[in-house]
Structure formats: structure tokens, C-alpha cells
Amino acid sequence: MTWAAISTWRMSFDGLSEASVLLDKGINAGDAVEKLISIVENNEHYKSVGFGGLPNEEGIVQMDAGFMDGDTFAQGSVASIENVKNAISVARKLSENKTNSFLVGDGATKFAAKNGFEMTNMLTEKAKKEWQGRLSANHQEQLRAYDGHDTVGAVTLDQQGSMAAATSTSGLFMKKDGRIGDSPLSGSGFYADSQVGAAAATGLGEDIMKGCLSYEIVRKMAEGQSPQDACDQALFSFAKTLKDRYGSCDAISLIALNSKGEWGVATNVEFAFCVSDNEHEAKIMIAQQAAKDRTKIFPMTEKWLADYQKRTESTID
Ligand code: SD4
């Protein structure tokens, strides 16, 4: 029976590998995607997701996460949640609610504490130092999706044909208190329909949400497009429109999987992602924008990995 998984960025490799083992044993898509994302959240070396994530301009780690069940369309989200170890698990729990399934700020944090989710200070010493460094440098730049440290988004297909999509992020470093990106927004950061396919996004949330890009990909797949064509067309046609009418389009990367387990990726930057299925082991691939509004995809090289490691160890400036 077919199963498959795809996830954003190099940092999701361990999570995707673990989810792959579980999917092979018959775990359901929702459990697999939650496991995948929580492994990334728990790794303190990843500066933009969960524990160890970089804080907002007030030095507070505020996280966004979303979960969607592709069988029922049930979805749950949290935004600007604080001090909770696994925001994705709170989002998934909220997806069981008919109402009150998207909570923000204090309400989200209180819900997590009351419902027994592990609460902890998410600001590590390392992240605090980077924040202090940035404060003293007194940078007043535009928010940007800084190099190599991004949202984890993932899509899974299980052996029963069910699909799920999920995201988790601490958002952009030095964001304003209460700023929320695309990641917890259904249709923008993620979307899943088990009868068609599912998608997730990473990049500058303010631009991704202008095009509801995850929903747009699923809609295109429902019209019969392959995941690759759906991703390329959703990204490049929207990026062009946005440049024409808004004046700019920042970094955006998109992943998708259809109900047959075929996948696609589109990006307007250099983008690493991880993918596996019942016939292929988990692997890291690299995507880049190519000519004619297409995305070029190739396997990760040793040189790319060495450069990546250098980048993740360096501070963000
Ligand atoms: C956000 N999309 O908060 C997220 C962050 C991200 O590349 O993916 N950065 O806007």
C-alpha cells in the first residue's frame, strides 16, 4: 500500500525519517505529521521552530502552528502562543473542536496549560544572546524570511489513503509582539483534502497569505494538475501578479503531495526539503527557481550540506 511524506527544509529530515518508519508500520497520517513536526520543535538547534526558536522584538518566543485532517477538513490552530513545548499538539487538539478551534495569545497559552500540555520557557540562552546582539546592533530592517531558518511544514499520506498537513514556527526573528504569519492560517500555510492532496508553505507569511497558496495548490490538483505543475503555477503566476500589483514578492517555497503519493515543490529562493514514500527512503532534495517559471530539483550534495551546517551555526545578521 502507498504511503508518502514531504516536509520543508533540511531541519525536518530527522522528523520525516521517524514519521516514515511509523507510516510504513501503518500509523495514521495525523499521528505521523504531528510526530514529524514535534521532533523539529524539540530540537533546540533550530532557530525558527519551537524550543530554541528566536524571539520577537520584546525577547518573547511567540509561536504559530496549524493542523488539518484531510478526511474531515477538521482544523486547529494556535498563534502567538507562549511557553508551550509543542505548539503543534495544541493545534491538533483544537482541531477536535467544532468551535473555538483557532486560539491566539493568552487564550491559546491558557488552553495549553489547562489541558495538560508541557509548559516550559522556550527562550534558550543562545537565542537570547542573538536577540541581545540584534538589539544592540539596533537593526531596523524590514521583516524578511532570513536564510535557512524557516517554518516546518509537512504533509503525510497513510496506508489507508488519509492525508494530513501541519505547520509550526516561531515566525520571523524580531517580529512585532503579536505578529502572526501564514503558518497557522488554513489555506495559506497549509491545506489538506484526502481525496485530492495537501500542501504547505514557508517564506514571508505576509506575502503567502495574499495568495492563499496552499489552498490554491490543492484546488489546482483537484482540476487534474500534477503536484509539480500545481506548485509551479501557484507560485510563479502569483509572484508575477504580486510584483505587478503590490510591487514586490518575497521568499516563498511550497510543498505538495497528491492522494497517489506524487509530490511537487516550487520556490523562488534556494529551498531544501525532505521526501519519502513506501518505495524510497527519506532523502534531502534541493530546489531552485529555473527558467520559464519552473522549479529545478536535484539531490542534496555533500558541499551543500557542509555550507548549510556553516550557515546554521552562524548567527543571523
Ligand atoms: C511566517 N512563514 O511567520 C513564516 C515564517 C517562515 O521563512 O516560513 N519563514 O511568516
C-alpha Rg (nearest Å): 18 Å
Taking the sheet with the most strands, its summary is: 9 strands, mixed
Averaged pLDDT: 93
Query: Which strand order do you get reading across the main beta sheet?
Result: 4-3-2-6-5-1-11-12-13
How are helices and strands ordered from N to C?
EHHEEHEHHEEEEHHHEEEEEH
Helix/strand/pairing class, anyone?
A: alpha+beta
The helicity comes to: 25-40%
Supply the number of structural domains.
Answer: 1
Please identify, by name, the CATH architecture.
4-Layer Sandwich
CATH homologous superfamily - what is it?
A: (Glycosyl)asparaginase
Low-confidence stretches: none
Strand content: 25-35%
> How many E-type strands?
13
Per DSSP, the total helix count is 9
Spatial gap, N to C terminus: 46 Å
- For this structure, the CATH topology is Glutamine Phosphoribosylpyrophosphate, subunit 1, domain 1
For the record, the CATH class is Alpha Beta
Q: Tell me, what's the shape?
A: globular
Unique ligands? N-hydroxy-L-asparagine
